[in-house]
Design goal:
The structure is a homodimer. By secondary structure, the first copy, chain A, is α/β, with parallel strands linked by helices. The first copy, chain A, contains 9 helices and 12 strands. In chain A, the strands form 3 sheets. In chain A, strands 2-1-3-8-7-6 form a 6-stranded mixed beta sheet, sandwiched between helices. In chain A, strands 10-11-9-12 form a 4-stranded antiparallel beta sheet, with helices on one face.
């Protein structure tokens, strides 16, 4: 849905000791960022924090006041280190209540009371007042509490949940991007690029060195919501590269 | 170097619009976390922030007071969006000064004044009072300012810089880890795992579902600095898995 603000902002809170220990490399930030770009919402910050209640409570409370939307990933499974739902409830000063729909679905999946044990039942409890976020991969829900969206950490489940959110989120114009690569070093394009950035302040121009197929080069990436300005700035960057003896090659942005 | 505190903490600040836009997937957190584990320093938080001076200044100032060490990656190249050195200088209330050694090395590399242009010279300026961090890949230095370590964003350069830091960092006992996998679902091991976590509060036990070779399962990861406690807790986890009809298989941790 499209709103009237000039910019809608989001923060992602990645909850999980396994990311901070280096065991697991986060894959959710990149996916969510891409989705949000398309919905006209800018991911403005991400934080990776450990499975510590006090830290989760404080981070959620700080971020939900600073950004239009907050997303969390991780910590909604059945084990002792899955404390996200309880921590978010605490951040909002409410208790946890059973989500009857997911409880019934899960009770049907596990035939005996031993299988549908306390640990699994825990996954069906969400903060009082939250709206469940269903997922097509597993039964256990995420949830939305005010402007905070609590998603799974497992990438396939996180994606299934994120893909259902478009109708709940109000964004601005989609963020468009164009990019080109050239075999000129960053130090050669830096001056001209700064001039172009000054001429188009509404376009965010980034420069990233690369080493591919035995050659150094630079990727130049332009982002913005104004398609005409984006195209004009892109043309100026391509002209500058050509003027410096480079060959601008369009790239995925 | 080994110090006397029970825990040494670190925060990583990833600076770069390209991570938040989803264009680039960060690779530096995982590498740095592994290095820090070995040096007895725990990565306790990471933040990904945009190339905005005010945000960098505020984040650096907040984090350098909250953690023993702060590392930043990104934003020390020659282009207009490389504002990390200037922003960190501002955070400390100092100006930028020329690092004579890297300036001389770079002047030798680029033969003409046109090649050693203003953009490239910018890379040799570091905050007044900072100690350069050399890198064996490119000439442009990172730097240490008090407890803040400013590293490159390009992974090969970031790694070369990080690898030189061991002698500047005081840590505690190295963080050890052991892990096993089993083809039991998380919901089946959750109860027993919580009991084991309670018995060994000094060991951090994590549980992570996986899907490999067509089978669901759970990885159980134990971390701590006390080798004997780690081994005992690991044995208890393996026994629990066996007791539930699973086969504990050692995994990389």
């Amino acid at each position: 849905m499209t709103g009237t603000k000039s910019e809608y902002t989001a923060c992602l809170i990645v909850i999980g000791n396994e990311i901070l220990s280096g065991r697991t490399r986060d894959a959710n930030l990149q996916y969510l960022a891409g989705r949000l770009n398309g919905w006209g919402i800018r991911l403005r910050e991400a934080r990776v924090i450990p499975d510590i209640e006090e830290t989760i409570v404080e981070t959620v409370n700080r971020c939900r006041r600073a950004f239009d939307y907050v997303f969390t990933t991780g910590g909604i499974g059945p084990t002792h280190d899955d404390i996200t739902a309880a921590s978010v409830a605490k951040a909002f000063g409410v208790g946890l209540v059973k989500d009857p729909k997911s409880f019934a679905l899960m009770a049907a999946r596990y035939e005996t009371p031993e299988e549908f044990n306390e640990s699994r039942q825990k996954m069906c409890f969400i903060p009082d007042g939250a709206v469940p976020i269903e997922n097509s991969v597993s039964v256990a829900p995420g949830f939305q509490m005010d402007n905070v969206f609590v998603l799974a950490g497992v990438p396939s489940i996180m994606r299934a949940m994120a893909d259902t959110l478009q109708n709940r989120l109000i964004g601005g114009a989609p963020v468009r991007a164009r990019a080109l690569g050239c075999h000129l070093p960053e130090g050669a394009v830096a001056g001209g690029l700064a001039d172009i950035q000054e001429r188009w302040p509404g376009i965010d121009i980034g420069s990233y060195p690369f080493y591919r197929e035995g050659k150094f080069g630079t990727s130049l990436v332009l982002r913005g919501t104004d398609a005409a300005a984006l195209d004009a700035a892109y043309a100026a960057v391509a002209d500058m590269v050509t003027g410096l003896g480079g060959v601008p090659a369009p790239e995925d942005s």
